[in-house]
Fold these 3 entries.
Entry 1:
Amino acid sequence: MILLNKFPYNSGHLLVLPRQHCGDLLKLSDEQYNDLQNTLKLAVKSIQEVYQPSAMNIGMNHGAAAGAGLPDHLHYHLVPRWNGDLNFFPLIAETKLVIEDLSESYEKYLKYFQNLSGAAR
């Protein structure tokens, strides 16, 4: 699945996760792992086409000691980045500015995926 992050680090921040509740990448079947990686690739392409960032961070916190907050909730973070952006980490008083409201991000991605879906017919 591809989801918007409820608390984005930057505009367009997505999460990619398997449908199966799982907290360990090694417990996914080969089919589930391949599906997750193909979905990750699709999400990267959507960010590039919708937001046209300079780059992006792609990462996963695997296990509680690495910062994974929810058991059985394996997911990748995809964070669009632009040269000179300062929104990735809070700098002052634990406050960050995200330029775009989640509803705006949702509409942009919805349009992209609807167009993609229509092209596949």
Entry 2:
Amino acid sequence: MTEEIFRADGYAKSCEATVTAVGEGGIRLDRTVFYPEGGGQPGDTGWLRTADGRALRITDTRKDGESGESLHIPEEGALAVGDAVTAEIDWDRRFRHMRTHTAMHLLCSLIEGEVTGGNLNDQKGRLDFNLPDTSLDKEHLTAELNRLVQEDHPVEPRWVSAEELASNPDLVRTMSVRPPTSGGQVRLLEIEGVDLQACGGTHVARTGEIGRLRVGKIENKGRQNRRVNIHLED
């Protein structure tokens, strides 16, 4: 399986890697810093650079449906099995994803209700909540989000066993996404004193890195579903 460097270090911008497979689905590496699309977070873009000066633009990264390995989707060009490359992500885009994704966890901490869906890009994120007969105050949520950002809480991943997760079902907030697992362990994302839940995405190290936030539209998407949109102000 591909060594997923981003799971332990979301700030890793590049790594040395070897091509292990090339096919219509994309390029596989023995190790990667590219996050594959999943959990509402887009796949990373970037470049695979070779020692002879070639640079393959990677336009997306996805999970192979059968093996679960990361597929790096090239714009054009080709590599061969055994080629040594430097895998380099589009860092500015990734960092905005990290900021937005962590902001969505802050939003979860403020709203009591099951999460039925979510998505994000490098400008904004949205979460859908199962909230029958509940009204939400946009200005209040904006103020509370920015308070949590300014308090600069530490953010860290940690792992628990599948048994521990089963005994604490509240750690899984998102009904539509399976918790990320590896070797019988489940990855959690902890915002100290604020939120703890299963998540496989990439995040900032402290909430202060998110920057100022704004709550946009709060939409009714069915009798019980409320969609909350949040935006990076910069």
Entry 3:
Amino acid sequence: MKRVLILCVAFCLTAAAFAADGDDQNKAADRIKAAAAVLDEIQGTPDSGIPDEVLGNAECVAVVPSMLKAGFVVGARYGKGIASCRTHTGWSEPAFFSIQGGSFGLQIGGQAVDLVMLIMNQQGMNNLLASKFKLGADASVAAGPVGRHAAADTDWKMRAQVLSYSRARGVFAGLELNGAVIKQDRDSTREFYGRVIPFRTSLETSEAPAGAYPFLKTLAKWAKNASK
């Protein structure tokens, strides 16, 4: 009986997360604006954002506005975001993706968090270009350091292909995200571009449509500041 109850709760939480796909806030254009706002707010907070040394060395940046986290014995998380990678002429056009995964343990309650992931090296970027990979399995992931500058003894360059962060209720911190699966969001890609474009094509193309500018300009601004 207890096992059935747990499975029912898990199913209900997952169904609620997927039902959010139909909300206006999850439409492609709105997601781009929301992702820009998240990055602006996080990096605009003195001494509590992503360290300049980390952001300045990131190969790709991915943002998930309002990722759903819910839990009652069985935890679940689900969200949709956008990613952009460095190219020879600037940041690439946005690639749309979904992230989903679960964790087991004693947890009660639910909340929406903003998620930021930084892909730190070429190996991590290759995983992202594959359009589907599992954090902790296909790509190593670790909670990223927080603060305007990374501590001198921080081994973030060595620890992981992906550094992850979360913001909930105004608190910004590194986030452990093992087990989550990232894959291309084909529906949002089709909605934004008018057709399904391969993940790799988007992340290697710098000629983005005007609708992508809110996020790309914000990303370019903070990446440039971080490189100074």
